[in-house]
Amino acid sequence: MRAGVVTPGVKDSYRVLEMPAPEAEGKVLFRPDLIGICGTDQEIVAGLYGEAPPGEDVLILGHEVLGTVLEVPAGSRLKAGDRVVPIVRRPCDHCHPCALGQWDQCQSGDYTERGIKGRHGSLSERAAASEPFLVRIAAEVGDSGVLVEPGSVVAKAWRQATLAQRRLPWVPRRALVTGAGPIGLLAALLLTQQGLAVTVMDQVSAQSGRAEAARALGAAYAEGSAGLAKGTAFDLVIEATGFSPLVFEAAAWLAPGGAMVLTGVTGGHREVEEDTNQFNQRMVLQNQLMVGSVNAGREDYESAVAMLERAAKDHPGWSQALITRRVSLAEFPDGLLHQPDDIKVVVSVGSA
Ligand code: BGC
Questions:
Q1: Ligand 1 atom at minimal distance to the Cα of residue 150
Q2: Residue 218 · residue 192 · CB < 8 Å
Q3: Is pLDDT above 70 for 6?
């Protein structure tokens, strides 16, 4: 079978290789239909991140996946033709959260991630996964099912915020999402569904497709911090750019008792000058909270599916504004090159 692979650690080593079909023994065999491309793939292709499975030299990419079931083991609750999304992370075998099934909270760092760290992904003509690590999606969700994985990251961020905010009486009304990429827009979708008044802030123009997509979901759009109404304070901030100086800037826009969830990362180093006394004062005197959130658990995938099912009803065709470009397996590197109108680029695995 053809698969899109890299040699981890080697810059621009992406190529399409003939690879052995996956071992389907006792597992669900599926055909990956659409694979989303994200910043993590960019880092892996740049040689900055990623790990091949033990004993192998190459890593099959692909962690944002929408597939169709081909074969199931006896006794499976899935059937051929079901559309499924594989869960990215697998637990380590020696930390407490993983033992409890909370692999997204792994503390040893020895977890594996499909298509990222120590485990092949699904950027291939065939893939297999064990049933507990597959999430079935309703037919109505259609191709927007490729957004389940990034959606699960957002669902976890919201779950973390609501869990952590049980520490005080918290009735969130206003939310700010920094970044109008796929994660930011999915955060806007989730938070508007939760009844919050959402502002999405990004640097792109208020006339751009991203700004329009935010407004179509019922959020307001702010072009840079200058676009925010003076003095507005937010009960919740979801940081979805990974641009670390913004973390400190946005902390100043939190309301008393407010929470900020950090979902993005950027590799390398960056130094900025900050008034750390002010930052510290606000956090202490206003009981504020900042929490990091990575990956997602099964319940978050299920919440993401529910979010997308609802979006399919509330905003028919909405995902077409988000999935802006489709490329083939061989064109994956072009998919990584950012074009001005790109929001989410996906690989259509079956295309020529
Ligand atoms: C994925 C997460 C993963 C993280 C770090 C992100 O792109 O969506 O599932 O945990 O990368 O590898």
A1: 8
A2: yes
A3: yes
